[in-house]
């Protein structure tokens, strides 16, 4: 590293664009009730979920990630060849070796990029976004593509009514670059603003790892324990992410928590004290897609116009590990 780089002032990082991949194949509550001892009414009351997406065999983690990543890069106007780093958040790969980020990078044409996987459970996207932002701040990269891609349905027992109702497949992506680049693209000085991508608030509860784990090939979960943990212990961490960004929860235009269950999301939103913030509700027709859920939910808010460029949003992931991570971002 040259002396000039060692002394260079850090640059602020910002989101440049987001992208998504949603499978066309739906698995509705009615489909599940037709073959299992459950009902649309039970599923909606306990989880808020109406339907979920199930990836076709050709919609691999890599293929979905490439599609979401390509859309994010196109929206950002970034040439894939100029991407310096690709981070893939996933916890549902069929095999631990090889990691899949290099294939995502290769297929996107990001041939000069570093590439690695992150397994941060359902918090994987927020962990990866923190890494991406810090990499830009440190000067190790100009542009980072963060992809989160999951096939939960490969790991859920289709006959386990307590699990199959919750989970779906999909991918989301975000392009991270320097805040001054984001501001000049938007033709405003505001996009980087006081917060492009705020510092991350993160942590773990490794002592409770067995609460969510794959046992005997299938995902198992102590649902009530997860519910209690998410609605009590995690709200102070979300507040901490706001503090680190130098804002109050009331300044937030949107809350984008991991899309685990609508009751958890609504409880967190009530406790946080952000009465005017839009709450992302992608879970209703996408189910829980683990690491992909935060970027999918964010992409929906951006695409639907429920948030505008320059708005502040809190992203917050939590899940298997147990892990959690959250940060405030400015909407690109
Ligand atoms: N349809 C009908 N009944 C069902 C059912 C279904 N799909 N799934 C479970 N049940 C039954 C159970 O068998 C149980 O029956 P029993 O009382 O006769 O034993 C009853 O419903 C209550 O089960 P319980 O697990 O106590 O329900 P719950 O109110 O805790 O709701 C969850 C279950 C999974 C919806 C809830 O615990 C939850 O959302 N937890 C958080 C899960 C989560 O988001 N995890 C992801 C974090 S990354």
Can you offer a commentary on this structure?
This protein is of the alpha/beta class. The protein has 2 domains: 3-186, Thiolase/Chalcone synthase (Peroxisomal Thiolase, Chain A, domain 1, 3-Layer(aba) Sandwich), CATH 3.40.47; 201-330, 3-Layer(aba) Sandwich (Peroxisomal Thiolase, Chain A, domain 1), CATH 3.40.47. It has helices spanning 3-7, 29-33, 40-47, 61-76, 101-108, 124-138, 161-164, 179-186, 223-232, 235-245, 262-272, 283-286, 293-304; strands spanning 13-21, 26-28, 51-53, 85-89, 114-118, 144-151, 169-178, 201-204, 212-215, 218-221, 254-257, 278-279, 312-319, 323-330. Strands 1-7-6-4-5 form a 5-stranded mixed beta sheet, with helices on both faces. A 5-stranded mixed beta sheet has the order 8-14-13-11-12. It has a two-stranded antiparallel sheet with strand order 2-3. Helix 4 (61-76) crosses helix 5 and helix 9 runs parallel beside helix 11 (262-272). 53% of the residues are buried. Bound molecules: coenzyme A (COA). Coenzyme A (COA) is lined by residues 38, 42-43, 46-47, 122, 161-162, 165, 221, 223-224, 226-227, 260-261, 264, 288, 319.
Short description:
Helices cover 35% and strands 23% of the residues. It has helices at 3-7, 29-33, 40-47, 61-76, 101-108, 124-138, 161-164, 179-186, 223-232, 235-245, 262-272, 283-286, 293-304; strands at 13-21, 26-28, 51-53, 85-89, 114-118, 144-151, 169-178, 201-204, 212-215, 218-221, 254-257, 278-279, 312-319, 323-330.
């Amino acid at each position: 590293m040259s002396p000039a780089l060692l002394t260079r002032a850090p640059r602020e990082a910002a989101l440049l664009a987001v992208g998504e991949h949603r499978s066309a194949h739906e698995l509705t509550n009615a489909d599940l009730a037709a073959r299992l001892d459950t009902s649309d009414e039970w599923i909606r009351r306990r989880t808020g979920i109406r339907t979920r997406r199930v990836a076709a065999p050709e919609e691999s983690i890599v293929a979905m990630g490439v599609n979401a990543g390509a859309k994010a890069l196109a929206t950002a106007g970034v040439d894939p060849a100029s991407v310096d780093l690709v981070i893939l958040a996933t916890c549902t790969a069929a095999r631990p070796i090889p990691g899949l980020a290099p294939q995502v990078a290769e297929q996107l044409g990001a041939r000069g990029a570093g590439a690695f996987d992150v397994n941060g459970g359902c918090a994987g996207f927020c962990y990866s976004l923190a890494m991406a932002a810090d990499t830009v701040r440190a000067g190790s990269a100009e542009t980072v593509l963060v992809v989160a891609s999951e096939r939960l349905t490969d790991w859920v027992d289709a006959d386990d009514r307590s699990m199959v109702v919750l989970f779906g497949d999909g991918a989301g992506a975000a392009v991270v670059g320097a805040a001054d680049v984001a501001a000049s693209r938007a033709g405003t000085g505001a996009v980087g603003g006081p917060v492009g991508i705020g510092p991350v608030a993160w942590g773990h509860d490794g002592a409770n790892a067995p609460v969510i784990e794959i046992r005997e090939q299938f995902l198992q979960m102590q649902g009530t324990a997860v519910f209690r943990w998410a609605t009590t212990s995690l709200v102070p961490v979300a507040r901490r992410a706001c503090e680190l960004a130098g804002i109050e929860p009331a300044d937030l235009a949107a809350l984008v928590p991991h899309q685990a269950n609508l009751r958890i999301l609504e409880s967190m939103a009530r406790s946080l004290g952000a009465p005017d913030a839009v709450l992302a509700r992608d879970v209703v027709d996408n189910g829980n897609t683990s690491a992909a859920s935060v970027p999918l939910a964010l992409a929906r808010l951006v695409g639907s116009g429920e948030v505008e460029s320059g708005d502040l949003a809190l992203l917050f992931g939590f899940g298997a590990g147990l892990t959690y991570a959250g940060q405030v971002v400015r909407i690109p």
